[in-house]
């Protein structure tokens, strides 16, 4: 019985340390609500005459195969 209580205590201790690390090293709530934009990537102005977008290449078409 003593080993079970020791394991329970160590498990609770590890869980508390992991939870504390998540709060310390995780993003703050203000960062989640207002993500900052990088100064290296300025927003580009929309082009006056944009070329029509080409469709993305599609994958293989899977058709039903009759069972013989």
Q: Sum up the overall morphology in one term.
A: flat
| Span of the ends, CA to CA | 63 Å
User: Roughly what is the average pLDDT, rounded to an integer?
Assistant: 78
- Percent in helix: 40-55%
Strand content: under 5%
**Oligomer type:** single chain
Description:
With 68 residues, the protein is an all-alpha fold. Helices cover 43% and strands 0% of the residues. It has two helices and no strands. The longest helix is centred in the first third of the chain and has 24 residues, at 2-25. The chain is flat. The N and C termini lie far apart (63 Å).
Notable traits:
68 residues; 2 helices
List the helices and strands and how they pair.
Layout: H1 2-25, H2 29-33
Region (Disordered): 30-68
Keywords: Signal
Biased composition (Low complexity): 39-53
Task: Describe the structure in brief.
43% of the residues lie in helices and 0% in strands. The chain is an all-alpha fold.
């Amino acid at each position: 019985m003593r080993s079970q209580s020791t394991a329970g205590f160590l498990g609770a201790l590890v869980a508390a340390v992991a939870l504390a690390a998540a709060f310390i090293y995780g993003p703050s709530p203000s960062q989640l609500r207002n993500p900052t934009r990088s100064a290296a990537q300025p927003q580009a102005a929309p082009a006056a005459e944009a070329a029509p977008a080409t469709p993305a290449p599609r994958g293989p078409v899977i058709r039903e195969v009759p069972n013989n």
